[in-house]
Fold this protein.
Amino acid sequence: MTRAITLHDVSKSYTRGARVVDRLSLAITPGEFLVLLGPSGCGKSTVLRMIAGLEEIDEGSLFLDGEYANDLPPSERDMAMVFQNFALYPSMTSRDNIGFPLRIEAPGDDPSPKVDATARMLGIEDLLDRFPAQLSGGERQRVAMGRAIARRPSAFLMDEPLSNLDAKLRNHVRAEISQLTQQLGVTTVYVTHDQSEAMSLGDRVAVLRGGVLQQVGTPRAVYSLPENVFVAAFIGTPRINLLRGLVRAPLDGAMTVSLGKQFLRLPEPLSLDHQLLRVQQGREVIVGLRSEAVRIAKPSAARPGEVPLTGLVEHLEFQGHEVLVHFNTGSRPAVVPELEAPRPAPGRPGVRRRRREGGTVLERLRERAGALRASPVRTGAVATLDGSDRPGPGDTSSAPASAEPRLPGDLIVRTTPDIRLRYGMQVPLLVDLAHLFVFDQHGQRICPSPDRLPDLEE
């Protein structure tokens, strides 16, 4: 038996009233594999613990199969949790660890048949008589998973179960988890900060930032249509190229997006998405280009929808099956700490504000004016940090120290290893405008339009 899990406007606060989860709503269907993805401290483990009943819900409601479950004790939720640190009993053998929850549920029954069946499923029959200290990290994780599987629960809750494993073993166990959950058909909620795990395992991915749900959808939809700059920057390897752009839409000429020394000329007739950019005339925007949206080719080889750029090779990353080329195109990189930081700064865009109860209209207007003065993003310019905008003496408006260091160049392009390039070479590039992202000054995606769905033929 599997079950549906529904969270409705769930919130959780700890000391000083800081919300670690803020009005989260999610509906998980029976048998679905949902991944909670986000940076450390975004509240994803807290969400998992509230579903399990290990944390109280301060506000909002939890429903299990449509029934209100906020006050239901963990023992009655019929869920099994797999922890990051394995949590095995050191004085028990693997057999006893797997059978322990079975003995608690039915003290008079012999757990051996279920333990043996679970061990065969996981391929750990030869480990049943060993103690945890005699097992490797991967073997201990399999035993921990066996303890959860043996109960045949209605839902699995997994809290970063692979983070303590080495890279090769992590990939192997990841494939095992995917196969097991499909075989058992049990609702699974999986917490991770590793986007590769999220994209390869989940039926859907829910991206969290600072306790606020940013986007939920299939891995393909989240990657191909990120709702905002944070999701675009967090998902994808290598990281998406974010550039400062300026929309120019003259009535008697072609629409362009200026990137500094070069520009992207939007082909005519304009697509619906590009027509909607006219309202951004004269405004700074954030342009997003994934590495596969740009290819090395001459302008004469351009396909419909591709426009030319040129780039100077600054760095090469050989990956074996591919090469990541860092180009300097004279563009202005958009490093937007306020929009990309793991946790939004208080009083800045991206934080959901609630209307303050009480107070006069004049007091609320004063608060609003103060917030506008304090926010560089709302005053008109995109909050960026690059070579042309470095602060001068006495300027305290620079990005926080946590901002990521600049990589060589301003545009990373993925290409095949058979293309021979060298440092300092001037290279022709073609940009596929069908994969162009444009975000407004508050980090929300405006192109492709929010209502557009990904085309399966793309």
